[in-house]
């Protein structure tokens, strides 16, 4: 038997972190700030050097990945079936320094965009920084 709407679990109807943080414009702003920092701040020079000269592809891809990861539209995942972020990066020579640069640039990007609610933004910032540091070998 189908559940009546009132019996639906709260989790099924709760807005996702993606929605609560402001949706696509906020995720686009975070990714844009992240790559601007990486591209211009010498503190991220080693991380920048690992990327292609033209950042257009990752600038388009990261906000769409983050959107799906945070419970929003899953276009990136549908276009990349079975593609896993950890295995995608496992072929890259990521060490503690470059992982730390990624983590710090992302923490700064989220702090600069300052989405609300700030507790959810802080939680996303911490999780992404830990994910990045976990990619170091
Ligand atoms: C730990 C440090 C990391 C380094 C050094 C790194 C480096 C890279 C590099 C070199 C690329 C290919 C870029 C190009 O072709 O120019 C890439 C792609 C990408 N990275 Fe990372 N990355 C890191 C962590 C992360 C994390 C934590 C995430 C997300 C949670 C992430 C998300 C992505 C995405 C979405 C792409 C594009 C994938 C695609 O659509 O093809 N990266 N990364």
From TrEMBL:
The cofactor required is: heme
Q: Name one Pfam family in it.
A: Bac_globin
UniProt KW keywords: Heme, Iron, Metal-binding, Transport
Query: A Gene Ontology biological process annotation?
Result: oxygen transport
Keyword Acyltransferase applies: no
Query: By its UniProt entry, which InterPro entries does this protein fall under?
Result: Globin-like_sf, Globin/Proto, Globin_bac-like_CS, Hemoglobin_trunc
Gene3D superfamilies, alphabetically? Globins
From the Swiss-Prot or TrEMBL record, what is one GO molecular function term?
heme binding
Query: Looking at the record's lineage, which domain of life comes first?
Result: Bacteria
Protein name, UniProt field: Globin
